[in-house]
Amino acid sequence: MIRLAIVDDDALIRESLKILLDGRDGIEVVAIGSSGLDAIEISRRGVDVMLLDLRMPEMGGLDALRQMKDQKVLILTTFDEDEEISQALNLGAGGYLLKSATPESIQKAILQVHQGKTVLDEAAMRVVRQTITQEKPIEVELSQRETEIISLIAQGLSNKQIAEELFISQGTVKNYISNILSKTALDHRTQIAIEHIKGRL
After folding, report:
1. Which of 13, 50, 136, 198 lies at a CB distance of 3.0 to 4.6 Å from 5, suitable for a disulfide?
2. Ramachandran class of 28: left when φ > 0, alpha when ψ lies in -120 to 50, beta otherwise
């Protein structure tokens, strides 16, 4: 089961998402919150994936993301402003969807984020594309294997799928990703995918 948390300040949205998602495709809604502070506390208790809104009272989603480094997060919001999308992705959110997305799309995105994939809707992809010509390439020396892994991450493959594709162990994949993050001074797997899409890696 995928243990899911839903954090949104709109009670109707929270309950609707719980009804739509709980028990579907191995998803179990185990926690509900209404602010960034709730998100941090829920993350400390442990969940597999968190659906997180951006603009909430007390503390917003971006501030919460800064304090949840290892939490798999799917942003689900009504806002498609470029700056917020960029910040969320740079802070390591595994995906970004608008609340106008279909229940099936949200459900699929949760499964993909749980697998370590990056999920971007059209608004998020627009932001990524806009920065392609604005930034210089990241100049680092990468091995052929590291380059292969970067490409596979950008294609949306999970660590398990990368291991199967390259006939290596998942532990070895994790070691390569750690090396890539260290060399590039990036913080998250999601950033590797984004920088590759931009053409910087």
Report:
1. 50
2. beta
